[in-house]
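re: ur question from earlier - yeah i can do the single chain one, its not a big deal. heres the input i used so u can compare w yours
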Amino acid sequence: MMGPVYVITDPDASLPVAAQALSAAQGGAGAVQIRDKHISDDDFAALVSALLPQMRALGVKLIVNDRAGVALRTMADGLHIGQGDGDPRALREQMPKGMILGLSVQTVAQARRIPAGVDYIGAGPVRATATKPDHAAPVGLEGLAQIAAATALPCYAIGGIKHGDARALKTAGAVGMAVVSAVTRAPDPVAATRALLTDWSMA
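and the output i got, formated as tokens:
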């Protein structure tokens, strides 16, 4: 649906968010999620609207993190929400046909009760990560495998994912990897994205 490499932007990295997104797209990411907890909805919408045509020209899905209003207003390619960010069923009813809905899942119990309308899950965190200080307890590769086995939905591993992880993540049942620092804080984000893609294709 979105390819194996899914990059999430980091507003605290030295590279601006727009540049992070474009670098990931140029490196071959299938999807880029814009995540910034601090900017206003208007600024967020302006950023997404500016990026959308560039990302679509590169064949990359642009996903909005958490803010359903921004996703709907900009007609982004998708929306990703956490467990406490609204009712997926209600959100799906507001979303146009074809807009992707992703959901963060931290436990097997959550994976077993995903409502209809969700298109994919972000499973984890696999490892502890500094880019999301309030994350749930790390599930490890074993926990990832249990979550992936508990749902038929495509499962993207998230949380401390780095180059060299692809084989283990594939074995655990993930269809791809969602990364933040491995791309956004790399010396060359384009090359880092390409390396992850190569890693996955050879795993």
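Residues 14 and 105 are 29 Å apart (CA to CA). not sure if urs matches, ping me
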